């Protein structure tokens, strides 16, 4: 076979041309031959292993566009894990996401390419902490963000993600017949939800190490530099960030916003790979702004996804008893109807008084 551009064979060049078109602003021609080879090999191994790759929106573009069978936000990945009939799930994301997949599909082999891919929110709280909170607030429903360990989910009444947190809080208050709920462990998500509902919120002081770094001054500086840019923020950011933004929502809600409204210029206040990934699908939109990377998400690479499929490593397991209890909480969330709008944080200008009790 004759060699093509970048030292690829013609066949490999043809096979990966569509991916190259989407990643070429982020991958150098020098890196591409090795990445194209890995993408092709991974896609072959997936068929051989009967595996599916669930890739979060924060994966790098070559993973997102090259090998992800399903790409999306935490809610979308959880739903897909429950739906998929593949024998093996490879979680191109962080450890709590792999545990969620295992909870929903205990009969499947769930693999994560690097076991060290953690999360500052998930490690901010333990099952023992949640048991103490329940003792302190008996009778109140416990809602935990999906960014928690299986041990914490096992102590939970219902999970939520940033895509449905307001809906889950209002559902739980009604179902339990109470006017306050426990929403843990993300303090900022809790504050941002509290601004959208009259239900009282008891929160925990956990934070996402990526989103808490943004400041209102960052937004002011960006508005000075690019006055025509629309600013979209993730609800794991502090409240003042959302108040200064034009829209806020989960990573999937941000994607929908950009795909549907096609702003001329946009700033995404979230993990940096999001902009690189969407950019491949919406040519003509100018993405500007800061770049904060999640060190945990960035542990996942094409090379370790490849090794994961070759050696069927590293398997994520969850004790059976934890699966049974955690599943109830995750399944309750999945069974709620999808919100009519992807996120309700877009009404940030009409905020209620924020009343959050911090534990
Ligand atoms: P979503 O994709 O659900 O918005 O979550 C963002 C995140 O930080 C996941 O770790
Ligand atoms: Fe956790 Fe934040 Fe990284 Fe998401 S971006 S995995 S919430 S540390």
Kindly describe this structure:
With 359 residues, this protein is α/β, with parallel strands linked by helices. It has 3 domains: 5-120 and 297-311, NadA-like (Rossmann fold), CATH 3.40.50; 122-206 and 320-341, Rossmann fold (3-Layer(aba) Sandwich); 211-288, Rossmann fold (3-Layer(aba) Sandwich). The chain is 42% helix and 14% strand. It has 15 helices and 13 strands. It has helices spanning 10-23, 32-49, 61-66, 74-83, 95-104, 127-136, 150-153, 165-176, 187-194, 216-225, 239-243, 251-261, 273-279, 302-311, 320-335; strands spanning 51-56, 70-72, 88-92, 109-111, 142-145, 158-160, 180-184, 200-203, 230-233, 247-248, 265-269, 286-288, 356-358. The strands form 3 sheets. The protein has a 5-stranded parallel β-sheet with strand order 6-5-7-8-13. Helix 3 links the parallel strand 1 and strand 2 (70-72). Helix 4 (74-83) packs parallel to helix 5 and helix 5 packs across helix 15. The longest helix has 18 residues, at 32-49. The termini are far apart. Bound molecules: 1,3-dihydroxyacetonephosphate and iron/sulfur cluster. Iron/sulfur cluster is lined by residues 94, 119-121, 147, 208-210, 236, 271, 294, 296-297.
